[in-house]
UniProtKB/TrEMBL annotation:
It comes from Nocardioides daedukensis. Residues 1-103 form the STAS domain. It holds the Pfam family STAS_2. This is Anti-anti-sigma factor. It comes from the Bacteria.
Length: 103
């Protein structure tokens, strides 16, 4: 898992699964602590695969951010991520940024 920051966005690349959840969890909470923006993004554009354990990390981080009066939103969710959010019923717990439709 490759993790970088870009302003209010935490950018993930690679496989986001049970093997990388601890690393991603730590990065999310560090980013929430360091970034003072009200809205924080987790960019999943370059995530190849995701599992339910990884999505649970995002759901818990979303609730934690909300308790602090902030918003955590997912960005760049491909079809596989959207499908897993729907199947796991975690879609109700996380906010997904709307994709811009090209003109």
């Amino acid at each position: 898992m490759d993790i970088t920051t870009d302003g209010p966005a935490l950018v993930l690349a690679g496989q986001f699964d049970v093997r990388s959840t601890m690393e991603v969890r730590a990065a999310i909470y560090q980013h929430l602590h360091e970034c003072l923006d009200e809205e924080i993004f987790v960019d999943l554009t370059d995530v190849d695969a995701v599992d339910v354990t990884a999505l649970k990390v995002l759901a818990v981080a979303t609730r934690s951010a909300e308790r602090d009066g902030r918003h955590l939103r997912l960005r760049g969710c491909g079809p596989a991520v959207r499908r897993m959010l729907h199947v796991s019923h975690l879609r109700r717990l996380v906010a997904v940024e709307r994709e811009k439709i090209p003109a």
